[in-house]
Design goal:
Strand content: over 45%
Largest sheet: 7 strands, mixed
Number of helices: 1
Mean pLDDT: 94
Shape: globular
Number of strands: 11
Structural class: mainly beta
Distance between the termini: 40 Å
Helix content: under 10%
Length: 119
């Protein structure tokens, strides 16, 4: 089973930056899209950004121009560079990918990393 491990969260002041990393076991990221989600207290989990195996990206309107998703297939890692952080960005951030093994599809999630932005 594929394991995803996020890191890079922390406490930062508004206007600051953080870079999150998500490492996957094996080469699963090289051939599958990867997404970052976040979940704030009392709110539903929301999609933040997605990157395809070809490098195409999609962002939530709330983070466009501030966040950048990228991937390093050689390292099996996907990054989320977060700039100009706002208190509203405070949440647990999760890495996600959907991959196939034979005829079955699997939905893999990391354990999450906390991002807290102080005003």
């Amino acid at each position: 089973q594929v394991q995803l491990v996020e890191s890079g969260g922390g406490l930062v002041q508004a206007g600051g930056s953080l870079r999150l990393s998500c490492v996957a076991s094996g080469t699963i990221f090289a051939i599958n899209p990867v997404a970052w989600y976040r979940q704030a207290p009392g709110k539903q989990r929301e999609l933040v950004a997605t990157i395809t195996s070809g490098g195409s990206t999609i962002y939530a309107d709330s983070v466009k121009g501030r966040f950048t998703i990228s991937r390093d297939n050689g390292k099996g890692t996907v990054y989320l560079q977060m700039n100009s952080l706002e208190p509203e960005d405070t949440a647990v951030y999760y890495c996600n990918t959907i991959y196939s093994r034979g005829a079955s599809k699997y939905n893999a999630w990391g354990q999450g990393t906390q991002v807290t932005v102080s005003s």
